[in-house]
Amino acid sequence: MRKTSQATAVMDNALSLEASKKVIAGGGSSNMRNFGIITPLVLDRASGSRIWDVEGNDLIDVNMGYGPHLLGYADPDIMGAVAAQLSLGAVTGIPHRLDHQAGELVAAIVPSIDQVRFANSGTEAITSALRLARFVTGRTLVITFDGHYHGWSETVLRKAAITNDGQNTQETLPGAPGMIPEALAHTLQLPWNDPTALERAFAEHGDRVAAVILEPVCANAGVVPPAPGFLAHVAGLTRRNGAVLVFDEVITGFRVDLGGAQRKYGIQPDLTILSKVLGGGFPVAAFGGGRDIMAPLARNEAFHAGVYAGNHAAISAVVATLGKLQADPLLYDRLEDECADFENALRLAFAEAGRHVRIARVGSVMSVALLTEAPGTDAECHALVSRTDFAAHRRLQTLCQDAGVYFHPNPLEPWFLSTAHTRADLAHVVDVISRSLAEPPT
Ligand SMILES: *Cc1c(COP(=O)(O)O)cnc(C)c1O
């Protein structure tokens, strides 16, 4: 077994996962953690760009906890701030001086936000934001886009047109068994980057639409950026029809630009959802917008709550993370240079191996997926998904994991790079992928 560090082995990965499965349903507390595993991996710790398993192996991670760690794992400034706060009270349920600091940072950085409410997870913040949109418009229909993920709540989790297993289902189906099918009567899913479909939907249902919600860069079904002019078109149609435009910037916020996708593309939504990078690895999310749309919450007419919402430990992480990002204006340019070079090196590696691959990237979020055929145009998420070679990708993932590079076995999960990934780390990732691609099929 590969051992690359001096850490003492506590246990075997496989035995450790089996032990967990006795008491944790499926072994991990999220279905995504238990998806597509071939070689068991149970972690001991994480730092910078690396994770260490219970056997003492270290791996370079490009999954990075699904996105929060723009500054790498266990960033000393964030850890220091949280450690200091822990001994001063992690949660009291009473407004705290840090709330003001965190709110001011978010409002200063994110162009469309004057006011926020903090929550614990992206799912919660989205649920609250959509309820607010339905309250202020007095309407119920929410337009979503195929392939975009907005958490697992009742009205927005629905089967993608093409599922993670490559199954094609164009029906409108709940995203999980046990959901209330009628809840989906209040959402309408449209193809991404298709202005005509959106125009038709507004023509048909315009006076029923409460909100349009989207990931401004679709990052949960391969990375599919907005087509030129598409976001402006969505914003125009949404406004003209009196609906609320919601940007789910859970991934793109503080990631594709300090001010998120809304600053990168210059489009102002009415409501914005933030999480992941926001808390630098601590469970926190936010939703916010201008003072007018947040007024029902300011007056306590709309309802949003949570014992741990905006707890002081998580908010101290927000203040430390955003303060650090704001203090380094060149951080995003440096990351862009490094990620662009990494992307080019990866393209070369797949080309030299003679394999079809789709690589798409916006800043430090990227998608790398083996395909069954040459990449065509994929402005729509499901056009891309139908060409993804799930089995070959999973095999590559297993070989790379055994050789010390971790990415998710699902080719639709994005890769996240961080300021902790050195050029040497990324060269090593390319090298491991090249060698794995050269392995003969078993
Ligand atoms: C991760 C994610 C969510 C859900 O956030 P949770 O904290 O897992 O509830 C919502 N929207 C997008 C775009 C995401 O990537």
CATH T-level topology of the largest domain: Aspartate Aminotransferase, domain 2
> What small molecules does this complex bind?
pyridoxal-5'-phosphate
Report Rg: 22 Å
CATH superfamily of the largest domain: Type I PLP-dependent aspartate aminotransferase-like (Major domain)
CATH class of the largest domain: Alpha Beta
CATH architecture of the largest domain: 3-Layer(aba) Sandwich
Q: Could you say which structural class the secondary elements and strand pairing correspond to?
A: alpha/beta
The overall pLDDT average reads 93
Order of helices and strands: HEEEHHEHEEHEHEHEEHHHEEHHEEH
Name the beta content range.
5-15%
- Name the poorly predicted regions: none
Q: Tally of extended strands?
A: 14
Morphology call: globular
Structure description:
There is one protein chain. By secondary structure, the protein is an alpha/beta fold. It folds into two domains: 13-66 and 330-437, Alpha-Beta Complex (Aspartate Aminotransferase, domain 1), CATH 3.90.1150; 76-326, 3-Layer(aba) Sandwich (Aspartate Aminotransferase, domain 2), CATH 3.40.640. The chain contains 13 helices and 14 strands. The protein has a seven-stranded mixed beta sheet, with helices on both faces. Strand 7, helix 6 (230-240) and strand 8 (244-248) form a beta-alpha-beta unit. Helix 3 runs parallel beside helix 9 (312-326). The radius of gyration is 22 Å and the shape is globular. The two termini are 19 Å apart. The mean pLDDT is 93.
